[in-house]
Design brief:
Structural class: alpha/beta
Strand content: 5-15%
Mean pLDDT: 84
Number of helices: 15
Distance between the termini: 57 Å
Largest sheet: 5 strands, parallel
Order of helices and strands: HHEHEHEHEHEHEHHEHHHHHH
CATH architecture of the largest domain: 3-Layer(aba) Sandwich
């Protein structure tokens, strides 16, 4: 199935389709029932239902006319002050179709708006409240200026839990006639990290290759190292085999096409779950954070990863 059709097929059209955000949905349903909304801000990690919830609000309020009463802008593409002064303002000043007295403007990734654009948006939200409600979607609410936050009812979305991700996998597997093994489900939960969008993209890519979804196929498609490979790197380093650990790490990165930032997150996770002495584990977690910062600042990835392996090896030698 084409990716756009896949996304449309599984996009929620009713509040009952929003999984893992029950408390938020319950409060929003009360607003929709009375056909009255404040300005809203949905904050939280990607792929947890923020955009879908905003679209369901529009569909429930306007019915078949929802497209005529809604504008959806991605602020990361159109983030300047001119967008707020033209597109947003022109849409906000016109009246809605139907018996709901206001239209809805969804600003996706609104935390990417420049501060000047946010100041302009602040005035627009204030001046056109009678004819338009704004729904701001942001991964980082701290990047939204305080005057805008104070004008919105803020809802904080959480990553999907393992049980909720498994429900989505089962629903898609049944609909698309896929055979997903239990190991594959665990791999999908681990790789997706509570991000439903990422989960569906990986599952779709796997389905193109085979109707039988295995954990090996998922790790291959997602381009992540298998946990046992990362554990082996840590085990070799901790036991003092620095050279073998270094070679295994390089082999793993090349086999999966991983960057340093990709592998450092997996190393940190496996160190945290390892049976290393608690004090040594804390020191290694701190070192992982330091190495990750160095790499994000432009330091050579493999040199930094070697430095991390040397710290793991030294931790293994201490009594």
């Amino acid at each position: 199935m084409d990716s756009a059709l896949w996304a449309e097929k599984y996009r929620p059209s009713d509040f009952s389709d929003i999984i893992g955000q029950e408390e938020i949905v319950k409060r929003i349903q009360a607003f929709v029932k009375h056909k009255n909304l404040p300005h809203l801000m949905f904050a939280g990690p990607p792929g947890v239902g923020k955009t879908s919830t905003a679209l369901v609000i529009a569909k429930q309020l306007y019915g078949e006319n929802w497209r005529q009463n809604l504008i959806e802008l991605n602020a990361s593409d159109e983030r300047g002050i001119d967008v707020v002064r033209t597109k947003v303002k022109d849409f906000a000043r016109t009246r809605a179709l139907g018996d709901v007295p206001f239209k809805i403007c969804i600003l996706d990734e609104s935390d990417s708006l420049t501060r000047e654009a946010q100041q302009a948006l602040r005035r627009t939200m204030e001046n056109y409240t009678a004819t338009c409600r704004f729904i701001l979607l942001a991964n980082y609410s701290s990047k939204i200026i305080e005057p805008i936050q104070s004008r919105c009812a803020v809802f904080r979305f959480k990553p999907l839990a393992e049980t909720e991700v498994t429900k989505i996998i089962d629903r898609i597997a049944a609909s698309e006639k896929l055979a997903v093994s239990e190991k594959a489900k665990k791999a999908l939960v681990e790789v997706s990290e509570g991000d439903c969008r990422k989960l569906e993209n990986i599952l779709q890519s796997c389905a193109v290759m085979s109707s039988e979804i295995t954990d090996n196929l998922i790790y291959e498609v997602a381009s992540v190292a298998r946990p046992k490979e990362v554990k082996e790197v840590i085990s070799l380093a901790f036991s003092g085999n620095f050279g073998k650990a270094r070679d295994k790490l390089l082999e793993t990165m090349l086999a999966h096409g991983l960057s340093g930032l990709d592998i450092i997150k997996q190393l940190q996770k496996e160190v945290l779950e390892s049976e290393i002495d608690a004090r040594k584990k804390l020191l290694l977690i701190e070192k992982c954070g330091e190495i990750e910062f160095r790499m994000s600042e432009g330091a050579d990835e493999f040199v930094q990863l070697e430095a991390l392996l040397s710290q793991i090896a030294l931790a293994g030698q201490k009594t």
